Amino acid sequence: MKFDIHAHILPEKWDDLKEKYGYGGFIRLDHFRPGSARMMRDDGKFFREIQENCWNPEAILLDMDTHNTDVMALCTVPVLFNYWIKPLDGYDWSMFLNNHLAGVVASHPKRFVGLGTVPMQDISLAIKEMTRCKQELGFNGLQIGSNVNGRNLDDPEFFALYEAAEELGVSLFIHPWDVLGQERTDKYFLQWLVSMPAETTLAICSFIFGGVFDKFPALKVMFAHAGGAFPFTVGRIQHGFFARPDLCNVNNVSKPTDYFGKFWVDGITHDPDALRYLLKVIGHKKIAYGTDYPFPLGDLEHGKFLTEMPELTEEQLRYITHQSAFDFLGIDSEKYR
């Protein structure tokens, strides 16, 4: 069984948000030919070209069947978080995205799982929408950004959301966005190649050094893209923890490696040797197969490299391909067989 924990979808169309909300800066879709669309900012600046499998559930299912993927967790494209907009507008926008996603999941309830989005710029509204996502739409998880308008995820303002997520049993999938170092990474695709792994590392370190894992021990958290650079730089991070506790350990937390087992990562390493190391560091019960579908930087061979690793045990494969994802979301896998 294969459960892809990390895949994206957006609606085929939406209102002109500049006209609706009265100010600009939004993404719109230009369906310039059948099956293809340009994501454009409303100032006319091109962002990305996407294909039909970014909005059409039937096209997604065709790809899933081609690659023997049984279940896919769908969440919005991070550029559509829109954390920068006015809170009530963000709340309205989140409801629109979540309602669309709920419709997709309801159309194929054994193939799709929804990870909702919430207006993180206003935590009271975020909690309200998270509650609706769980209780009315049936989502067991949310996708949130790695920072909110430049505030790291250890900001105490977010603690109320983490507490509510614990109580509701909502898991958090953390995806890098609005990444650091943008002023120096506008060439060579470096925001995706360099800044995104660094941004995810920053998010994990914020959870550790900010005491978030200690304050909310029941909170289920997964970090995208194999945890970014964190698993591969944790030796340096831990050395710094001991070398400069006056700077690192201001919140009286445990050493960084003590938090392995407290969070999940997806398995997007693009490299068998990297996955082997990830298994040593994170452990197979906290690694979930994911693709970042349908974007080119994702694993569009849908876990083919797993078949090239004959040393993986049956139990390791079971957790990586589906059980870790079900455990993260608190879902009984039998419902999807």
List keywords for this structure.
337 residues; three-stranded antiparallel beta sheet; 13 strands; globular; eight-stranded parallel beta sheet; TIM Barrel; alpha/beta; single chain
Explain this structure.
It is a single chain. This protein is of the alpha/beta class and 337 residues long. It has a single domain (3-10, 55-336), classed as TIM Barrel (Alpha-Beta Barrel), CATH 3.20.20.140. It contains eleven helices and 13 strands. The protein has an eight-stranded parallel beta sheet.
Could you give the topology of this structure?
Blueprint: E1 3-8, H1 17-21, E2 27-33, E3 36-41, E4 46-51, H2 57-66, E5 71-75, H3 87-107, E6 112-116, H4 123-135, E7 141-145, E8 147-148, E9 151-152, H5 159-168, E10 171-175, H6 190-209, H7 212-215, E11 221-223, H8 230-243, H9 245-248, E12 264-266, H10 272-281, E13 287-288, H11 314-329
Parallel strand pairs: 1-5, 5-6, 6-7, 7-10, 10-11, 11-12, 12-13
Antiparallel strand pairs: 2-3, 3-4, 8-9
Helix pairs in contact: 3-4, 4-5
